[in-house]
Amino acid sequence: MINIDFFINEIENFTKNLPENYLILGVEFENKDVENKNYYLIDSSYKVINNKINDYLNGLSPTEHIFYTSNIYKNLDKDVAIQNAFDNNLLYAFPVYETNKNEPMKKALFLDRDGILIDDIGYIGTIERVIINKHFIDVVKHANDKGYLVVVVTNQSGVARGLYSDNDIDKVNNYIKNEYEKYNAKIDYFYKCPFHTDGINKKYVRETILRKPNAGMHLTAMKEHNIDFSKSLMIGDRDSDVIRLPYLKSYLIETPTYKIDLKDKIIPLKSIYNLLI
Q1: pLDDT at residue 9 above 90?
Q2: Mean pLDDT score of the chain, rounded to an integer?
Q3: Is the dihedral of CA 156, 261, 50, 42 positive or negative?
Q4: Predicted local distance difference test score (pLDDT) of residue 36
Q5: DSSP assignment of 15-35, as one string?
Q6: Which one, of 156, 161, 155, lies nearest residue 199 by Cα?
Q7: Are the beta carbons of 234 and 224 closer than 8 angstroms?
């Protein structure tokens, strides 16, 4: 069930910087293939730049929800209006999410892995290379105490590059989970993206909506665990951790490893405790 009042409020904020005569299409990530269906590819401003993607892992699925304020679409068939807006570079996609009304919604703390939960020493495919970031043990414990699910979302292009296997990621993730649990800090779920366009392992060389800053992993977690994005947040250490979900608050922790361009997203680690309410 989509909370339309919530989305209308969010869209009002979203539309402030859009051009006149925009049309917004509600989209979602299906995480499954649907025959003869076109998916939508968006850019960093949420403008639809391709409306004929035939690969469900590389696009967002249109829903029945459209939003506009211009009368030019009022008397048009829905599909005609959408195509008209796309042809005029006025079609934007707003990710919507359906919640399970029979279950309580949950808030989540989404965390990057390398550079946040563990030190980022580059392409970590074995447990011997894992160095736990002890600063985040208390953050995870605090999130547990405040009733947040702790969900790790990690880009792992090392699989596509042939540096380690998909199974190796799982072994490292399980090790991290167990190490945190030694300090009574519970990590609930891990999501991974082993794909990248630059690689040698052909199975994993591809574009995908799963790879951050795209929201595929987050939208998958939402569907599987009934997560309320408006009460959740994302913490990472690089620009790609600022997720393309207008209503999910993303923040960055500055580390020596990466130069951050999105300076307005940087917060001190201690501020996370105040955000977890």
Answers
A1: no
A2: 93
A3: positive
A4: 79
A5: GGGSPTT-EEEEEE---S--T
A6: 161
A7: no
CATH number at residue 131: 3.40.50.1000
Q: pLDDT of 100-149, one tens digit each?
A: 778 889 999 999 999 999 999 999 999 999 999 999 999 999 999 999 99
Is the Cβ–Cβ distance between 112 and 140 less than 8 Å?
Answer: no
**pLDDT given at position 17:** 85
Q: Are residues 202 and 261 in the same domain?
A: yes
Asked, as a colleague might, if the bond just before 104 is cis with ω within 30 of 0, I would say no
Which of 48, 63, 95 is the last residue before a domain boundary? 95
For residue 60, the 8-state DSSP code is B
114 is catalytic: yes
Selecting among 33, 77, 87, 114, the annotated active-site residue is 114
Tell me the residue range of the domain where 12 lies: 4-95
H or E stretch at 85: helix 78-87
Of 77, 112, 119, 228, the active-site residue reads 112
CA dist 210 and 194 (Å) reads 9
Q: For position 2, what pLDDT does the model report?
A: 54
DSSP state of 266: B
Handedness of CA 117, 45, 231, 252 (dihedral sign): positive
Instruction: Please tell me whether residue 175 adopts helix, strand or coil conformation.
Output: helix
63, 95, 127 — which closes off a domain? 95
State whether 87 and 131 are in the same domain: no
Q: Is 138 a catalytic residue?
A: no
**pLDDT confidence band for 14 (50 / 70 / 90):** confident
Report field, pTM of the whole predicted structure over 0.90: yes
Distance CA 248, CA 257 (A): 25
pLDDT, residue 7, reads 64
- The DSSP call for residue 167 is H
